[in-house]
Amino acid sequence: MKFFRKHFYHFFFSFLFISYISYSLIVYFIGSGKYQKTLNTQALAGQLIWQQNNCQSCHQIYGLGGYMGPDLTNIMSDKNKGELYAKIIIRSGTQKMPKIDLNEEQIDQLIAFLKQVDESGKSGVNPENINYFGNYSLAQNSYE
Amino acid sequence: MNRVSFYLLRFSLILLITALCVGVAAAFVFFDTGFFNQFLPFYKLRPIHVTASIFWILTAAQGGVIYYLNDYYKLEHKQTLLIKASYFLWLLSIILILISFLSGKFGGREYWEFPPILAIPILLSWALFAIHFFKIILKNKGKKPVYIWMWSTGVVFFLLTYIEANLWQIPWFRENVIRDITVQWKANGAIVGSWNQLVYGTAFYLMAKIGEDENSAFNKKSFFFYFLGLTNLIFNWGHHTYNVPAATWVRDVSYVISMTEWILLINIMQNFKSKISEAKKFLNIIPYRFLLASEAWVFLNLILAILMSIPAINIYTHGTHITVAHAMGATIGINTMILFASLFFIFSKRDSNFSLINNKTITIFFWSANIALLFFWAALILAGITKGYYMVSLSQTFETAMQHVKPYLFIFSITGTILAFSLLVLSIVLLRAKIFSNNKA
Hints:
A: 5 helices, B: 441 residues, 0% strand
């Protein structure tokens, strides 16, 4: 008991450290919940194009990223935007967005990535889903 | 004399100046994007600003820790080969990162957008620093003060979370979009917690020295708050991903743990009276002023962080400028203020006249920085509330929301420029200190 008391801080740190490792593994293996789809080869290539052109500095996915341009999580299923709109913007740029130097194959890969992101869920949360605990359900996003 | 710690501290100031200048330019891009696109587009400016800011914090904290550790254990201030190699790699990789951004070479993720190959020297440099750090810690037996626990935690967890931030390079992690985003933001959330441990540990060390109260670094209350911070580092990252359709418990765990931050807030409120009498006693000491300012910013940011951690509020704040207000409040209001305290503390020891000569300049720009930051922070919160209201409550488009946000961004840019200028003057005052002119340790 004396030994335990003397080294209490070390024990508690070890406990938290083990918790960190365990929780990390749990998040890696089951944290994605029911969503088990994987990106296809084309979308994986598109994901790297997204990173190499630093799209995240201006755009968001699930509200994470820059603030200059709109969130692109659900741009593909947006009835006012969609694939053709996205392709035109990528090819020619806008007043705000510089033209990105990509060939047709790369544009298709980027579009494939955005399509699969779109299929993973909805970025916005409906305020009507908030419960008494200040939490909410993402049931409307189909994977919960 | 351990010159490496001074080299790191001076290099950190150059990084801060870079972050400030590029940050001001990036703020004005919102008003004339076309003009900036011709020379330095936003997608280049933002990573330079973010990287220079992050590495300012890490480098200044690292330099301080090396210096204080030598001071605490009364070691000879000699630079070892390990720490020299660590410094060389650190310097080289940061320069290469900035060059890669300027030449338009990216490839990484948020915060670490540089080509992933550059993650290797950063990791190696930190590992060498960690070996140097633990060689000293383990050689010296005995009960350790809380700040050494905090520094140790920061050193270890930066290494772990930085590796985690690079796990996306293994295809299994990135091929599932939800897993990918969850792991990426788990790492990014915890990595901030890890450098906070380094910086808050420094604040603790400084306060123990200024107040000549080493006992406070050993008492149970200090350790309680250290462990609370560590628990939040490990579990409280989920507010980044509340709206990501991952497993429900990811959000629940984070929500519950984040509510423990109320304890910190209540503690600050309880200590308010004693803080005032402490301030009366030490306000003439320059590092103390910066520490006091950081405590005020902890209070304000904590309120914001607690509110943002409530999912019902988070749906309005997520992806808005309120997140930026929180980030700026923490990096400038808390981290930068503590690191300035640390730099003024160390440099005053090396050049005893420089604080005295520059006292008036330091006082003026200390106040202008904090007042400008308050307006800058408030403008971002108002911008975020406006964006959240138009996009979530009124379901308006991004373009419409941004039209209403623009006036606040104008205030943000103007106050940001005043803030940057103030911090720039303080950095120049520090850079002009004659820290190599004598042989004091």
